[in-house]
Amino acid sequence: MHLAAFDEDIDPTEKFREFLQTKGMRLTPEREAVVTAVYATHDHFDAEQWVANLSQRGRKDGASRSTIYRTLSLLVEAGLLRRVARANDREVYEHDYGYPQHDHLICSKCGDMIEFANDVISETLEKVANAHGFRMSGHRLEVEGVCAKCLRPPQRSHRRLDMI
Amino acid sequence: MHLAAFDEDIDPTEKFREFLQTKGMRLTPEREAVVTAVYATHDHFDAEQWVANLSQRGRKDGASRSTIYRTLSLLVEAGLLRRVARANDREVYEHDYGYPQHDHLICSKCGDMIEFANDVISETLEKVANAHGFRMSGHRLEVEGVCAKCLRPPQRSHRRLDMI
DNA sequence: GTCCATGCAAACTGTTTGCATTCTT
DNA sequence: AAGAATGCAAACAGTTTGCATGGAC
């Protein structure tokens, strides 16, 4: 258990390096730029957001569009990121390392994503999966509706749909 | 309550016609071809499936790609169809009229979608939404994993990923 | 020298849209 | 004649890929 606990504590970049090693790949400066950027804040994001940001930084500090996409997929494989939902036709990512499993209420007005964790749901899913002889590896639950902020109508909402 | 009960019983085409009327639109032969095709069996499907099928039928019996896409969106608006998931980058639809709310186990090997209904989940979601002052209008729950059939390995699976 | 990784531009895919034409009323 | 609907082809957006170049060991 000590090892497991420790394993949970090493930082994402290190975890990524380990993952890459097992596949005979290297943690290049570009890849590192992506992990660092993405893990700088615990926010939902999509690929293009980081393309806009990272692709104009100088070399060794940023990465090109293709590298970003390729790296995000690797990070998902590595268990560091999770594809949670889709907003505006874009895949939305979030941290999947050191954070408890949770789902999202997605406001169809402002696009805000509200996280919530609920054990009943995961337990129920386990049961349902078992009952069907299905080996569950994960799930994606998007609850659509309108958030509290947007329900108070007069004041216009400050967030726009395309801001995720 | 009588009206409601009756309303549940009229056939999808009629329901669609009513919906269109409220928007000043007509139930054209093309639109009818789409509803009929789509409601012929209670199966999951994607747009391209029907494009392949309907776009080569003679006029008045089929419809073009654009009309199909446009009609599917109308059917969703009308509450006749639901976008349930995404498989192979395609939006997957299913009937949303006369069928109880349910969710899906999606096999990542063969692509099979197993429906299941579970009250606990919907009740829990209600509670969670309320707790956040969120007005829920629906949800999308995709459970990923491997189905029972694909877990028995030796016999190769008969369904392919790209068959939905 | 070999293998991995990058960036660019082109390709791909599902879906949407502009537009000229046709149908309905 | 006005409005709505169609089909075609082009546009679109996000993502993926082929390929020539560059870097690490």
Question: How do the helices and strands line up, and which of them pair or pack?
Answer:
The structure is a homodimer of 164-residue chains.
Chain A: H1 2-9, H2 12-22, H3 29-40, E1 45-46, H4 47-54, H5 65-77, E2 81-87, E3 90-95, E4 103-107, E5 113-116, H6 119-131, E6 135-146, H7 148-151
Parallel strand pairs in A: 4-6
Antiparallel strand pairs in A: 1-3, 2-3, 4-5
Helix pairs in contact in A: 3-5, 4-5
The structure holds a DNA duplex (25 and 25 nucleotides).
Binding site for Fe cation (chains A, B): 103, 139
GO biological process, one term (chains A, B): regulation of secondary metabolite biosynthetic process
Protein name (chains A, B): Ferric uptake regulation protein
Helix content of chain A: 40-55%
Q: How many structural units, i.e. domains of chain A?
A: 2
According to DSSP, the number of beta strands of chain A is 6
State mean pLDDT of chain A (0 to 100 scale).
87
Low-confidence stretches of chain A: 1-6
Determine and state the CATH class of the largest domain in chain A.
Mainly Alpha
Query: Can you say what the CATH homologous superfamily of the largest domain in chain A is?
Result: Winged helix-like DNA-binding domain superfamily/Winged helix DNA-binding domain
